[in-house]
Amino acid sequence: MVETALNHRTIRNYKSDPVDEDILRVILTAGTRASTTGNMQVYSIVVTSDPSLKERLWEVHFRQNMVKQAPLVLTFCADFNRFNTWCRMRKADPGYDNFLSFMTAAIDALLAAQNCALAAEEYGLGICYLGTTLYNAEKIVEILELPNAVVPVTTLVMGYPAENPGLTDRLPVQAVLHREKYRNYSERDIDSLYAEKESLELTAKLLEENQLETLAQVFTEKRYTRKDNVAFSQKILEVIERQGFMNNRKE
Ligand SMILES: Cc1cc2nc3c(=O)[nH]c(=O)nc-3n(C[C@H](O)[C@H](O)[C@H](O)COP(=O)(O)O)c2cc1C
Hey, is 44 helix, strand or coil? Predict the structure, then answer.
């Protein structure tokens, strides 16, 4: 399992070979064995393989090719719907229509997703997370017919790889590690921690392509701009509210 984690690479090109149902079942079971808040399992996994539904998802995932190419699209949802229904059926009054409950359910969903990702990779499958899930959550709610108290938080496309990319770079472990307490970064620390990333050939290529001076500017001016972040923040907050997770007033 550690070997699998150390060899993880995102796959963006897939063969059309289907994934055996038995293998999928084990992957999903591994997902359900993830730690879960209070053992409530407040998440759901929607597995989409129908080509016409996948085409609709492809459209809202910014037309990223792998959504159509990979045989499986797994949408992980923060889900209190099932738990609330159970509570109501058992004479219990659920107080889970608030933001904390959304965070709880979102964390549960993400933990299940990463367990599924690692299990899939153990079976030689490839995966790619889709951040576009949050950008167009309202359309995913519509396509997958998600009821109240259900919000999609991430998506995994899954299938057999048709490429074998190299490992991508990471910051050294010391960049993310703080022993005992948080130790803030000096400018010298930042220079040293980002030195390798900034000297990659890929970085030079990105700067050339985008006609920018620094790699950080590629993030702030091209990939994840303030304007987009604010627009998508407003959209996702509306979805969280519409799906019934924003009743934060004291009684
Ligand atoms: C939450 C999340 C959302 C992501 N969204 C996308 C995406 O929409 N499209 C894509 O091609 N890759 C996406 N990725 C993959 C990252 O780009 C990838 O993990 C990162 O570049 C590191 O590469 P590696 O996974 O091959 O090590 C996403 C990853 C995460 C964790």
Answer: strand
